[in-house]
Design brief:
The structure holds two protein chains of two kinds. By secondary structure, chain A is an all-beta fold. Chain A is built from no helices and ten strands. In chain A, 0% of the residues lie in helices and 46% in strands. Chain A is globular, with a radius of gyration of 14 Å. The chains are: A mainly beta, B mainly beta.
Chain lengths: 116, 118
């Protein structure tokens, strides 16, 4: 079956512009995560969606970052007034959720964002 | 808060030889999951191996095995019979307690770049 897909693959934008990054999770996966991978750094958690619950936004670095998940499936990460420090690879992951056990996160190929 | 440390930024190994990648972590929790992920140039993160903290037996997956030392908070990955396709970045990651999938936001180390020489 299809894995997690993300678009665009690469995005170059000018400082101050807004960008939208899209994630299509694996069908049936109720949990969706966004991570940021900056150069030379590990992955940094940004936001988590699970079903109809309120999202966990504790990892968002500033109020310029927001995300939504429509219909429990596709998610969009929006960065307003982009800054050069926002340049990174943005990775999306999805998983099933079964209580009492670990649920593997499946990652997409990421979007490489470059802010000039 | 949990931290994951990978102190080696790069390693190189000859094809068919064995290499060990190091990882240490810090947590006050007693039960958790630890992982090694592989990220090839395609950027797709792939789960290599998983260890449950309450299990004393080290996890193995074909050529990949771990040395889990809970008291020392150490979690190293051993790759046997290295292959050219093993060339990638490898990340150590920590999963919060419970592992229920509910809010399992992973904490990652900075990664290590492994090069396998022909």
């Amino acid at each position: 079956g299809a894995g997690v897909s993300q678009s665009p693959s690469n995005k170059v934008t000018e400082k101050g512009k807004d960008v939208e990054l899209r994630c299509d999770p694996i069908s049936g996966h109720t949990a969706l995560y966004w991570y940021r991978q900056s150069l030379g750094q590990g992955l940094e958690f940004l936001i988590y969606f699970q079903g109809n619950s309120a999202p966990d936004k504790s990892g968002l670095p500033s109020d310029r970052f927001s995300a939504e998940r429509t219909g429990g499936s596709v998610s969009t990460l929006t960065i307003q007034r982009t800054q050069q420090e926002d340049s990174a690879v943005y990775l999306c992951a999805s998983s099933l959720v079964f209580s009492g056990t670990y649920n593997e996160q499946f990652f997409g190929p990421g979007t490489r964002l470059t802010v000039l | 808060a949990q931290t994951v440390t990978q102190s080696q930024p790069e390693m190189s190994v000859q094809e068919a030889e064995t290499v060990t990648l190091s990882c240490t972590y810090d947590t006050s929790e007693s039960n958790y999951y630890l992982f090694w992920y592989k990220q090839p140039p395609s950027r797709q993160m792939i789960l290599v191996i998983r260890q449950e903290a309450y299990k004393q037996q080290n996890a193995t997956e074909n050529r990949f095995s771990v040395n889990f030392q809970k008291a020392a908070k150490s979690f190293s990955l051993k790759i046997s019979d290295s292959q050219l396709g093993d060339t990638a970045m490898y990340f150590c990651a920590f999963d919060p307690p419970g592992g229920t999938g509910a809010n399992s936001k992973l904490t990652f180390g900075k990664g290590i770049t492994l090069s396998v020489r022909p």
